[in-house]
Amino acid sequence: DSGVTQTPKHLITATGQRVTLRCSPRSGDLSVYWYQQSLDQGLQFLIQYYNGEERAKGNILERFSAQQFPDLHSELNLSSLELGDSALYFCASSGSFGTGELFFGEGSRLTVL
Amino acid sequence: AQSVTQLGSHVSVSEGALVLLRCNYSSSVPPYLFWYVQYPNQGLQLLLKYTSAATLVKGINGFEAEFKKSETSFHLTKPSAHMSDAAEYFCAVTSNTGGFKTIFGAGTRLFVKA
Question: At A34, is the secondary structure helix, strand, or coil?
């Protein structure tokens, strides 16, 4: 158990819809990262937050947005969903003074029909 | 910019044989390097990490990796494969340039034959 909790574990929705994925980082970790894993794209970095502030941005679509709340949990919002958004979405956290080591949740599997 | 290349999307070995998973990286600053493992229906977990101390790094489950700066490589090895090693392995590079941004390789799926 990594200590990172993601909900929901599975989500099935239709094209055009909007979903929210939630992540609670390990106790004490200030950084949260979101990754998308798909068969054709591999593991893609989406975005990083540190103590509520956006810190780094990767290949995140404009239809996607994220935020980190004062209690350090984070949400990834995916809107106007397309079939190609079907993927595993991982959240990871890391400590403030670590060496970049990431602790991953078990992921949220999104299926868009 | 950082990048990671894993040679071979699939590697198959016999139980008891040597495991060698290849990883080459590029980074404009001294990197932190990692190997993560992903078992089916699970998140990634850390196998080992290189953070500029010893170049030969030992990890969990008998795995180790050697950092070779001249070759920009960080290959993962295990002397004797076990059936339970069957999983997907990811090499990753992180540099502390405006936050710890970690880039992953495409992954190598390891199959272990009885």
Answer: strand
A33 exposure class (CB count in 10 Å sphere: 0-12, 13-18, 19+): buried
**Token digits of residue A54:** 């956006």
**Residue from A33, A21, A24 nearest A101 by CA:** A33
In the predicted model, what is the mean pLDDT of chain A? 93
Task: Identify all chain B residues contacting A47, using CB atoms and an 8 Å cutoff.
Answer: none
Residue B112 to residue A34: CA distance in whole angstroms: 31
pLDDT value for A2: 85
Interface of A with B in 56-75 (CB under 8 A): 56, 58
Tell me the pLDDT band of B31, cut-offs 50, 70 and 90: confident
Closest B-chain CA to A10: B41
Q: What is the pLDDT of residue B97?
A: 64
- pLDDT tens-digit readout, A12-32: 999 999 999 999 999 989 999
Q: Quick check: B96 contacting A, CB < 8 Å? A: yes
Query: Which of A26, A99, A108, A109 should be substituted to probe chain B, the one whose Cβ sees the most B Cβ atoms within 10 Å?
Result: A99
Contact B91, B47 (CB under 8 A): no
Residues B103, B93: Cα–Cα separation, whole Å:
5
B99 with A106: Cβ contact below 8 A? no
> Mean of the pLDDT values across residues A56-80?
95
Q: When comparing pLDDT for B93 and A12, which is higher?
A: A12
